C-alpha cells in the first residue's frame, strides 16, 4: 500500500552544522541511537553524514575526528531528497536508482524536516520481509 512520506519518515532527525567535528557528530549518533545526521545551516541542507561515512572517509583514512569537520566528509549536493507529500513508491524508486539507503525529507524550499530510511519503507511497504523484521527489532533495543 502506497503511503505518503510524512506517514513513515523519522521527523526528529539530528542536524549539525558543516563545521561540527566528526567526533561530536559520532557522539550525537551514539546518544540518539541513529546512523546518520543531516548537515545543514538552518533551513539550507548541505549534506548527509552517515556512520559509514565516518568509518570510510575519516577513520580508515587516519583523520583526526576531533578536528575533521562533518562538512569535509558528508555526502553533498546534488542530494536526492523527497518531500513529505511524496509517495513511498517514489522513495523506493529513488533509493533503487541512486543506490542509497536514506533520503532526507525536505519541505518545498529545501528546509530539512526528517529522513526516511530503507528500514522505514520496509516496515510499511513489506511488513513481512526480513528487513522489516530487523528494522522493528532495532527500534526496540
UniProtKB/TrEMBL annotation:
Ranges for domain CBS: 9-66, 74-134
Keywords on record: CBS domain, Repeat
Cross-referenced SMART domains: CBS
Domain of life per record: Bacteria
Entry-linked CDD domains: CBS_pair_HRP1_like
The keyword NAD is assigned to this record: no
UniProt cross-references to InterPro entries, sorted A to Z: CBS_dom, CBS_dom_sf, CBS_domain-containing
Database matches in SUPFAM superfamilies: CBS-domain pair
Entry keyword Repeat: yes
PANTHER family: CBS DOMAIN-CONTAINING PROTEIN CBSX2, CHLOROPLASTIC (PTHR48108), CBS DOMAIN-CONTAINING PROTEIN YHCV (PTHR48108:SF34)
Protein name: CBS domain-containing protein
Species assigned in the record: Streptomyces thermospinosisporus
